[in-house]
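Sequence in, structure out. Go.
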Amino acid sequence: MVLASGSGSRVGAELNKVYLPLAGRRLACWSLDAFARIPEFGVLVLVIRPEDEEFAREVVGDLDVELVHGGASRQGSELCALRHLASRIDAGEVDTVLIHDGARPLASDGLLTAVLKAAREFGGAVPGLTADDVVIATENGTDGAGYGGTLDGAVRVQTPQGFLAGPLLAAYEQADREGFIGTDTASCMERFSSLPVHWVPGEERNLKVTYPHDLRVVEHLLREAGLP
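Output:
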């Protein structure tokens, strides 16, 4: 599942950022192609805004991708896609779901397969990088917020996040009934599921395009890798 239903206002463009040009293609193309290259992914879903459907169809091209209209929030969009897959989840045709930001175009084949393998083995998997730059704020200090040292064990979470499909759908339906909005997929699963969430080493290059300069960084990394 690739999420492309946000507006991306922080990147400073009128166009939804996942359809911005990147190295001769639109940004979302890179994320979709990464999943399409791996045979283990039997269903590929792109979650979009209704007003972006023309762009989405251009991005999909000849790929076998199912388009789903998202909701009012990230979690709502994920739930829309899970409901779209519900009959196949119930039938056991879809056993594991990976949810990925369309604005993360550089996730490697190795990362995607590692998350899928760990999710199938442990029930849930989240990629992340150790965050040595996270600090603890205290009430001491002349400005009212002192420095309390670094926070040991902090991790910067990335996507894709992967979970067994049945428990994921059940957790999201319960969250919807209770009006719970999590910070990401893992937070919802931690609240409404007993599945353990396994940490998978993330990748420095798996950055999310959030601000205008991020596009230039990503394009540079693509050139370094010999792409396109």
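Check: The first helix runs from residue 27 to 36. Residues 189 and 217 are 32 Å apart (CA to CA).
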